[in-house]
Design goal:
Layout lengths: L10 H8 L19 E3 L2 E3 L4 E9 L4 E9 L1 H18 L4 H17 L1 H12 L3 H22 L6 E3 L5 E8 L2 E5 L5 H14 L3 E5 L7 H12 L6 E3 L4 H9 L3 E7 L2 H13 L4 E4 L5 E4 L5 H13 L11 E5 L3 H13 L19 H16 L3 E4 L20 E4 L6 H4 L6 E7 L2 H8 L4 E2 L1 E5 L3 H10 L4 E4 L14 E2 L2 E2 L6 H5 L1 E8 L9
Bound molecules: nicotinamide-adenine-dinucleotide (NAD) and N,N,N-trimethyl-4-oxobutan-1-aminium.
Amino acid sequence: MVVPRPLLQPLVPRLRRLLPGLAMSSATGSFSLQQPLNYRGGARLQPTDGGQVEEVYEPATGRVIAKLLCSGEKEVDLAVQSAKAAFKVWSQKSGMERCRVLLEAARIIREQRDEIATLETINNGKSIFEARVDIDISWQCLEYYAGLAGSLAGEHVQLPGGSFGYTRREPLGVCVGIGAWNYPFQIACWKAAPALACGNAMVFKPSPFTPISVVRLAEIFTQAGVPKGLFNVVQGGVATGQFLCQHPDVAKISFTGSVPTGVKIMEMAAKGIKPVTLELGGKSPLIIFSDCALENAVNGALMANFLTQGEVCCNGTRVFVERKILDTFTKEVVKRTQKIKIGDPLLEDTRMGALINRPHLDRVQNFIKQAKEQGAQVLCGGDLYVPDDPKLKNGFYMRPCVLGNCTDDMTCVKEEIFGPVMSILPFDTEEEVVERANNTKFGLAGGVFTRDIQKAHRVVAALNAGMCFINNYNVSPVELPFGGYKASGFGRENGRAAIEYYSQLKTVCVEMGDVESVF
Ligand SMILES: NC(=O)c1ccc[n+]([C@@H]2O[C@H](COP(=O)([O-])OP(=O)(O)OC[C@H]3O[C@@H](n4cnc5c(N)ncnc54)[C@H](O)[C@@H]3O)[C@@H](O)[C@H]2O)c1
Ligand SMILES: C[N+](C)(C)CCCC=O
């Protein structure tokens, strides 16, 4: 059945305005883009070198929607030089001046929310419903750091004899942002907002799978009044990322992606003594105690596993359920999972779209196959999904999967799958579950559902994870710091904490008396 999309059609003229030269209607299966995808010095352009071409897909249909020209060393250098020049201007502005520009950027994003969300859905495959939430979180992030820009300050310290010292919070210079493909626009905002608020410039490289929406962000920054060259986009994959990380004029690298790539980024950064923020993967625990509000816990488990087709770093994919309620909880979770509407991500009622690409879908399928071989029981889903609509036949869909009969030593319980696969694990005691929850190399997130407030706080205090939720999961207020422990990385995005990672502290010691020399 093909559902009409009355809400989508009015967007076509607005998308044409956003991306002139765009050959499209905004319906799934009709988008294509010829415009350059690099952004430097305040304009879109093709890279001067590189030349490797990557195909960019629409996951919902499997169509190629754009060709990506990967940037070479020269183009990366030009982008860094462009950022360096703009940094000189931007870093001299007062916090209040930076605040006004960032607020304007937030306003434009808010105004263009539906169009940007549509681009994100077309390129990423997530439902339009979710993409709109991502864009809301993005402009909220800019608003939040705009608010902080005007109040960045050091401290004044009195010293003996009337002398004193003070500290200044200063920008770092040209920051590099490297993003993953699951939240393309939001990841760019989580990095750019604190970076720019602190007075830095940025060169951003999105994933080659999702290069489109971040160029729109670059245009919005220019429209809002940042100096040309302050926020640049270079497109490409591994080689382009390496040129960026190795560039001598880059002051900081903020990376979101997998653990193996994070290790490489850290190695490159070490050679240049560059600070890094690493937002890496996870295999987070969600602990459901028998005294929970069951409906909330079921909702929480779905939120913890099935947003963005399960392609979420902080997902609570190890769902530990107290044995007393195992059957009731499992039955309800399976029932609700089976009802998730899969299909055309641009339809208003779709709640699960397509996974990012065919190799990733195959990888997720292999995890499920291996789980079955190791003794897990597929309670629902896990198979490929082929929508009725003929234009979606080559899309990358699968049914969300709940695995029962899981044990801690199974691959599906130990490794990050990054797809819609929930593993349910029974437990008996608080002590036991905390130990099992922490028995992982990762430490990004964790959650607990219980009505016992003391137990809730005791358990999250014992979890080795950077982002913990009590009686909810995967909500994302930009006021709260986000980031991992252990192999999930370090550094924080969002909240006041991120300021630490995009600025450096200068101490000034002022002598008010004479110099007493020891010589
Ligand atoms: N913690 C978080 O906030 C967070 C958020 C989203 C995704 N992730 C993680 O990201 C992973 C999925 O994303 P992915 O597949 O895009 O990850 P990835 O590591 O393959 O790629 C991430 C980015 O790094 C670039 N890159 C790859 N090799 C590089 C190199 N040697 N030098 C420089 N850049 C390089 C890629 O082109 C891409 O832009 C998952 O593990 C997920 O958990 C983490
Ligand atoms: C917005 N979420 C759902 C918290 C996801 C943050 C980014 C992780 O992949």
